[in-house]
């Protein structure tokens, strides 16, 4: 049972435009969400995170939005650059569960930014 | 060098063989994790460890064994490799506290023939 879902396996956008990557989750215990970026032959690297007490977090060109009622989050990249081309993973954890804050990852979205 | 290193980077093994993937971190992170990445499944947690001598199962632990006798090492062993275990394996570590996020190694691509 996939608790974190990324329904778009791939996304292609033009350089300079906005990239919007989506993520849905089913576990209402999740209260912390992260986005990771992964280049080929490398490990994932942390990009941005958001706590459930917020609905938006911004870091430069990257903004994450959280809609708790819809159990949905999205990552906006503005403006998109060719170097942003990578696989993006959404991840979630239930920090209040008392257990180890292990991350549950989605299936990933391959973003291709066309020059 | 400081960081988290995995070895080997690439491994081909035969069905039924035992194989161990190594993970070493130099930050003294208390938590360490093993994930596998497969097309259509994303990253799935195999095992994790909160400290030396403390390990627990993740989402897909069957066929794998871990140990953590020292804080800095977290080896993953496939006791009898199967073709379904062909995958890219990532080790990760972090300090206590979710705000820190995870730091991942570069991965081991394992092929079972």
Description:
- The complex is a heterodimer of chains A (115) and B (113).
- Chain A is mainly beta and 115 residues long.
- Chain A has strands at 4-5, 10-14, 19-25, 32-38, 45-51, 56-59, 62-67, 72-77, 86-93, 104-105, 109-114.
- Chain A is 0% helix and 52% strand.
- In chain A, strands 2, 4, 5, 9, 10 and 11 form a 6-stranded mixed sheet that branches. A 5-stranded antiparallel sheet of chain A has the order 1-3-8-7-6, with no helix packed on it.
- In chain A, a hairpin with a 2-residue loop joins strand 6 (56-59) and strand 7 (62-67).
- The model of chain A has no long low-confidence stretch (mean pLDDT 92).
- Chain B is mainly β.
- In chain B, strands 2, 4, 5, 6, 9, 10 and 11 form a 7-stranded mixed sheet that branches. A 4-stranded antiparallel sheet of chain B has the order 1-3-8-7, with no helix packed on it.
- Classes of the chains: A mainly beta (115), B mainly beta (113).
- At the A-B interface, strand 4, strand 5, strand 9 and strand 10 of A face strand 4, strand 5 and strand 10 of B.
What is the secondary structure topology, with strand pairs?
The complex is a heterodimer of chains A (115) and B (113).
Chain A: E1 4-5, E2 10-14, E3 19-25, E4 32-38, E5 45-51, E6 56-59, E7 62-67, E8 72-77, E9 86-93, E10 104-105, E11 109-114
Parallel strand pairs in A: 2-11
Antiparallel strand pairs in A: 1-3, 3-8, 4-5, 4-9, 6-7, 7-8, 9-10, 9-11
Chain B: E1 4-7, E2 10-13, E3 19-25, E4 31-38, E5 42-51, E6 54-57, E7 64-66, E8 76-78, E9 87-94, E10 103-104, E11 108-112
Parallel strand pairs in B: 2-11
Antiparallel strand pairs in B: 1-3, 3-8, 4-5, 4-9, 5-6, 7-8, 9-10, 9-11
- Biggest interface pair, counts: A-B, 25 and 26 residues
Secondary-structure-based class of chain B equals mainly beta
Summing up helix and strand content along with how strands pair, one would put the structural category of chain A as mainly beta
Tertiary shape of chain B: globular
Percent helix of chain A, as a range, is under 10%
Rg from Cα of chain B: 13 Å
How much of the residues of chain B is beta strand, in percent?
over 45%
Mean pLDDT of chain B: 92
- The separation of the N and C termini of chain A measures 38 Å
Oligomeric state of this protein: heterodimer
Distance, first to last CA of chain B: 34 Å
Which sheet architecture does the biggest sheet of chain A show? 6 strands, mixed
Helix-strand string of chain B = EEEEEEEEEEE
Q: Estimate the global geometry of chain A from the Cα principal axes.
A: globular
Percentage of β-strand residues of chain A = over 45%
List unreliable stretches of 5+ residues of chain A. none
Number of beta-strand segments of chain B: 11
Radius of gyration of chain A: 14 Å
Instruction: Find the count of extended strands of chain A (DSSP E, 2+ residues).
Output: 11
Instruction: Give the biggest sheet of chain B.
Output: 7 strands, mixed
């Amino acid at each position: 049972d996939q608790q974190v879902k990324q329904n778009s396996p791939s996304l292609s956008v033009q350089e300079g435009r906005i990239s919007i990557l989506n993520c849905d989750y089913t576990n209402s215990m999740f209260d912390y969400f992260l986005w990771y970026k992964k280049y080929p032959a490398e490990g994932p690297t942390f990009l941005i995170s958001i706590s459930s007490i917020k609905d938006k977090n911004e870091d430069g060109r990257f903004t994450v939005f959280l809609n708790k009622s819809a159990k949905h989050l999205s990552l906006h990249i503005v403006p998109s650059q060719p170097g942003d081309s990578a696989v993006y993973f959404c991840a979630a954890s239930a920090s209040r569960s008392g257990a180890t804050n292990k991350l549950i990852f989605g299936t990933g979205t391959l973003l291709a930014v066309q020059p | 060098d400081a960081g988290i290193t995995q070895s080997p980077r690439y491994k081909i093994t035969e069905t039924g063989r035992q194989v161990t993937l190594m993970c070493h971190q130099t930050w003294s992170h208390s938590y360490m994790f093993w994930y596998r990445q497969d097309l259509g499944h994303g990253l799935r947690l195999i095992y994790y460890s909160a400290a030396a001598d403390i390990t627990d199962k993740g989402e897909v632990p069957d066929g794998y064994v871990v140990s953590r006798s020292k804080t800095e090492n977290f080896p993953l062993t496939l006791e009898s490799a199967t073709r379904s275990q062909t995958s890219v394996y990532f080790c990760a570590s972090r300090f206590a506290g979710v705000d820190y996020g995870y730091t991942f190694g570069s991965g081991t691509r394992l092929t079972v023939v």
